[in-house]
């Protein structure tokens, strides 16, 4: 049986989805109230607007998009970021 990952999304948040038939992972989007501008070497948390409930024995890995990293230097500090099955806080990109 496939594991079910439950999630809730705030109104207006984009739900995770696989963009192509061969995609290895689902894409998630930022959920911003206003644009974010970063200076070189700045860091910030970017909200996703979603919360997850992951089954025991599973994890979610968050990885940077290669195009954003290569073209704009936008990445995730602790790549891959791990969301453990017992975590119940806000989901954010680092």
Task: Give keywords.
94 residues, mainly beta, Deoxyuridine 5'-Triphosphate Nucleotidohydrolase, Chain A, two-stranded antiparallel ribbon, 1 helix, 6 strands
Topology:
Elements: E1 6-9, E2 46-47, E3 50-53, E4 59-62, H1 66-72, E5 81-84, E6 92-93
Antiparallel strand pairs: 1-3, 2-6, 4-5
Quick gist of this model?
This protein has 94 residues and is mostly beta strands. Helices cover 7% and strands 21% of the residues.
Give an overview of the whole structure:
This protein is mostly beta strands and 94 residues long. It has a single domain, classed as Deoxyuridine 5'-Triphosphate Nucleotidohydrolase, Chain A. It is 7% helix and 21% strand. It contains one helix and six strands. The protein has one helix spanning 66-72, and strands at residues 6-9, 46-47, 50-53, 59-62, 81-84, 92-93. The protein has a two-stranded antiparallel sheet with strand order 1-3. The radius of gyration is 14 Å and the shape is globular. The termini are far apart. The mean pLDDT is 85.
- Categorize the overall geometry: globular
Task: Quote the beta fraction.
Answer: 15-25%
The CATH homologous superfamily corresponds to Deoxyuridine triphosphatase (dUTPase)
CATH class bucket:
Mainly Beta
Supply the helix-strand structural class.
Answer: mainly beta
In which order are the strands of the major sheet placed?
A: 1-3
C-alpha termini separation: 32 Å
Average pLDDT across residues?
A: 85
Instruction: Indicate the percent of residues in helices.
Output: under 10%
The radius of gyration computed from the alpha-carbon positions, rounded to a whole number of angstroms, is 14 Å
Count of DSSP helices?
1
> Architecture in CATH?
Distorted Sandwich
